[in-house]
Amino acid sequence: MVQLVIGDKQLSSWSLRAWYALRHGGIPFDEVRLHLDTPGFANAIARYSPAGRVPVLIDGDVRVWDSLAICEYANERCDGRLWPADARLRARARAISAEIHAGFGELRAQWPMLSAATGLEVQLDAHGVRDLDRIDAIWSDCRRDHAGRGPWLFGEFSIADAMYAPVTLRVRSYGALLSPLAQSYAGFVVGDAHMLEWIEAAARER
């Protein structure tokens, strides 16, 4: 059985990305949940990863750390279903996934993910607004171009949706106002059954 080592569901956006991809890929796994920001975390995570961070996927003698790498491993486990089948769409999905994997630091810092929280009032500065505007544009462009294929960024669920899933929770928590297509997409993801499972578990942690 695959194991996925994750942090607190209330806090760990990187854990959510890997968890969400595995769920939508239909890959059974056991959760190993570690508490972040505690004295015992460093020793606990050292049992699973030399990188000292969550998430970590364990599949027999295979260990994969880093959310995007875990998503890629999950894609291989489910015969490529987690990227668009069309090569052009796949290239675009990979590009926007890499963009959020490496960027949007101001938005992350100013609006930390608090999965079960709502009604938070934190004003973004100009750098945070720029990050949010770029994400709004990505979501809006994808939904405009692929609405006929289904409700996800590229029609069917893909790793790109997993990578942006934590932002949809930030939109919910901080009451972000986006353009109509982006706002609709964020609401759809937050209402997804797997996301609701994550939010409910985060609420129980509190």
Give descriptors for this structure.
2 domains; Glutathione S-transferase Yfyf (Class Pi), Chain A, domain 2; Glutaredoxin; four-stranded mixed sheet; single chain; 9 helices; 206 residues; globular; 55% helix; alpha+beta
Fold blueprint:
Layout: E1 2-6, H1 13-25, E2 29-33, H2 41-46, E3 56-59, E4 62-65, H3 67-77, H4 87-102, H5 105-110, H6 126-146, H7 159-174, H8 180-190, H9 193-205
Parallel strand pairs: 1-2
Antiparallel strand pairs: 1-3, 3-4
Helix pairs in contact: 1-3, 1-7, 4-7, 6-8, 7-8
**CATH fold-level name of the largest domain:** Glutathione S-transferase Yfyf (Class Pi), Chain A, domain 2
By CATH reckoning, the class of the largest domain would read: Mainly Alpha
Oligomer: single chain
**First CA to last CA: what distance?**
29 Å
In terms of structural class, how would the helical and strand content be classed? alpha+beta
Tell me the radius of gyration. 16 Å
The chain-level mean pLDDT equals 97
State the helical fraction.
40-55%
Number of strands: 4
Cross-sheet strand order for the largest sheet: 2-1-3-4
Walk me through the structure.
The protein has 206 residues and is of the alpha+beta class. It has 2 domains: 79 residues, Glutaredoxin (3-Layer(aba) Sandwich); 109 residues, Glutathione S-transferase Yfyf (Class Pi), Chain A, domain 2 (Up-down Bundle). It is built from 9 helices and 4 strands, in the order βαβαββααααααα. Strands 2-1-3-4 form a 4-stranded mixed β-sheet, with helices on one face. Helix 4 packs across helix 7 and helix 7 crosses helix 8.
